[in-house]
Amino acid sequence: MKLGIMQPYFLPYIGYFQLMKAVDKYVIADNLNYIKQGWINRNSLLMNGTGFMFQLAVVGASQNKLINEVIVADDQSKLLRTIEINYRKAPFFADVFPIIESILQYEDKNLARYLGNSLVRIAEYLRFDTEFSYMSDLERDTSLKAQDMVINVCTIMEAADYINAIGGMELYDKKIFKKNSIDLFFLKTNPIEYKQFKNSFVPNLSMLDVLMFNSMEQTNELLLQYELV
C-alpha cells in the first residue's frame, strides 16, 4: 500500500495532486502548526497574463495555533468573484466553477476540514481512487515529530511505500525508513505546460488554473507527468 502525508493547502499546485493520485491512502496532516504568510490558504491564479496571489480569508490566524484550530471567514464572495472574472472565458469554466463555488460555501469553517473538503471534492471530480483520512483522527504516538512521526503513521497504516514531495529529500532518510520496512520515494514533477489564453504560459499557478484550461481527462494526463526518485 502506498501512503502520502501532507498538510492541507487551498487549491495548491499540480504536484500536490500528483502525490494524492499516486498513493492509495492520503493522510491530511491537520494537526501541524499554521504558517502565517505561507501557502496553507494562499496560492496564485492567472490575471491579465501574469500570476496573481489570492487568499482564502481566515479569522484569528496565528503561528501559535494548529491548522485545525484556525477558522475560515464566512464571506468568501470577493475571492469567488475574483476567480469568476479571471476565468469565465476559460474553456472548462462551466465544469469547474460550480465545484469551486461549492467548496467556498462549505459549512464547516474549521480550516483543516474546510481545506480537506476542497481536496476531496477535486479528487472526486478527477475520479481518484485515493482514500483520505485526517492525522488527528489516528491513534498514534503524539510525542513523535518529523521523520519519526511519519514512520509511526506509516506503520499504523501498514504502508509498504511512503511517497513524499520532492522538498522532503533533506528531511527524510531512505535508510531509516527501510529499517522500518518502508520504501521511501520522492515525487519530482516534470516540466508541465498547457494552453492558457493567448498569453505566454505562466507556470507554477494553483491547480485551479490547470482545471480551468484542461478537461478532466487532460488533467489526469498532466498528473502523470512526474518521476519517483
Low-confidence blocks of residues: none
| Backbone CA Rg | 18 Å
Task: Give the count of structural domains.
Answer: 1
Shape annotation:
globular
> How large is the share of residues in beta strands?
15-25%
End-to-end Cα distance:
18 Å
Number of helices: 8
The class by helix and strand makeup works out as alpha/beta
Question: What keyword list fits this structure?
Answer:
about 230 residues, alpha/beta, six-stranded mixed sheet, 10 strands
Tell me the layout of helices and strands:
Elements: E1 2-6, H1 14-22, E2 25-28, E3 42-47, E4 50-55, E5 58-59, E6 71-72, H2 77-87, H3 93-104, H4 111-125, E7 131-134, H5 146-157, E8 161-165, H6 174-179, E9 183-189, H7 207-213, H8 216-222, E10 226-228
Parallel strand pairs: 1-2, 1-8, 2-7, 8-9
Antiparallel strand pairs: 3-4, 5-6, 9-10
Helix pairs in contact: 2-3, 3-4, 3-7
Please provide a brief summary of the model.
The protein is 34% helix and 19% strand. It is α/β, with parallel strands linked by helices and 229 residues long. The longest helix has 15 residues, at 111-125.
